[in-house]
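Re: the request from the purification team.
They wanted to know what the chain is likely to look like in 3D before they choose a buffer screen. I agreed to run a prediction and write the result into the notebook, where they can find it.
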Amino acid sequence: ECERLRKEGADLLGDCEGQISSLTVSANGNFVAAGTLKGEITVWNCRNNLMVLQLDFTDSNLLSLAFGESGKTLFVSISRDAVVAIDVDSGTELWRNQNKLDVVGLEFVESLNAVLAAKTANVVELLHAVTGEVLKEGEYAGDLLRDLVLFPDSKRFATILSDGTVSIWDTNTLVLIASFPSHQSVSCIDVSSDGYMLSIGGGGSAI
């Protein structure tokens, strides 16, 4: 089906105005959200290919997006400004957590009803998903933090620094479990569905 659509030049969902800087899919697979360098957020319903929400944070680089439970809430990181929670149905802002530092990665932790927010200064915060309150904060000395990923069991997460350092954290306590070098400058990280393999890249052509 994907091959047929490619040959016909059809769009699966739609286009954004401006370069896409962040993308996320809801856990139930019903929604896709995209953010652009110009500050535009678009949310589509994957079941009927209809746009359900469009918001504009004028001239704001959107660094990261994450859906909450069932795709009802969208968490947005605005460069050098804030982490914002948005109700997808109404487009209403639910809360705003101000940040002077860039939050480069967001992950929703359903078991804690909280959001992991990773800042460039190698600081990770656990925010209450309903209120935006900072529940816990973890910090580790090192280079600039570039990305984070939550393990499938939600008990751990991994971060990657610009110098290639990979760190594994405990989600509940935000305590650092272990760290190791990857010997290259990297900017992105992901984890396999069984939680046993990490893939990192972004500093060059190697993964």
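For the purification team: The mean pLDDT is 88.
Please add any questions underneath this entry.
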